[in-house]
Design a protein that fits this description.
Blueprint: H1 5-8, H2 12-21, E1 27-28, H3 35-44, E2 48-52, H4 58-70, E3 74-79, H5 82-90, E4 95-99, H6 112-117, E5 125-129, H7 138-143, E6 148-150, H8 153-157, H9 161-172
Parallel strand pairs: 1-2, 2-3, 3-4, 4-5, 5-6
Length: 173
């Protein structure tokens, strides 16, 4: 759930509504750039926080990962390449995402998750992010070892987000 109003049009209230609407875990998906952002995620009621390896130096990544654990938050460490997966593993990440969208060009490389995700060891939750357009995109990611997908844009554009989520969830059922 995006909670940053200035950049994403979200709010803490949006996260609270998501929390009240379902029993699924809720992630605060904003750019985490300070320790206060991790603390705020806990205060808002999130179950998890997003740590984008490309936006954090090694010390920040380690500190925010450690703080999330201390606050009983899961941390999804988002990576884009093999070096970032190694950095995530070095800080003890237990959940690593591979974002298929290039943060500079915004182009999606649907082969990126399979290529980069091969470095995520068993026992670490692997999450494919971005570029998931619908249910047909899930089987190849599952076959590559991904445990979950993080989907946003295709749900917003679907016209019927509830039906789109149900279709995605039916793939794993």
């Amino acid at each position: 759930m995006l909670t940053d109003e200035a950049f994403f049009g979200g709010s803490a209230e949006d996260l609270a509504l998501a929390r009240a609407s379902c029993e699924l875990p809720v992630i605060r998906k904003d750019f985490t750039v300070a320790a206060n952002d991790v603390v705020d995620a806990r205060i808002m009621g999130a179950d998890a926080v997003l740590l984008i390896a490309a936006a954090l130096d090694d010390a920040e990544l380690a500190d925010f990962q450690r703080l999330a654990v201390e606050l009983s938050l899961d941390a999804l460490v988002e990576t884009h390449d093999e070096a970032e997966v190694e950095r995530a593993l070095a800080v003890g990440a237990t959940m690593i995402g591979v974002n298929q969208r290039d943060l500079v060009t915004f182009e999606v490389d649907t082969a990126r998750a399979v290529r980069v995700g091969a470095l995520i060891p068993d026992g670490v939750v692997a999450v494919a992010e971005s570029g998931i357009g619908g249910p047909d995109d899930i089987p190849p990611l599952a076959a590559a070892g991904f445990d979950a997908v993080l989907v946003g844009e295709s749900l917003v554009r679907s016209g019927d987000p509830r039906a789109a989520v149900e279709a995605l969830r039916a793939v794993s059922a």
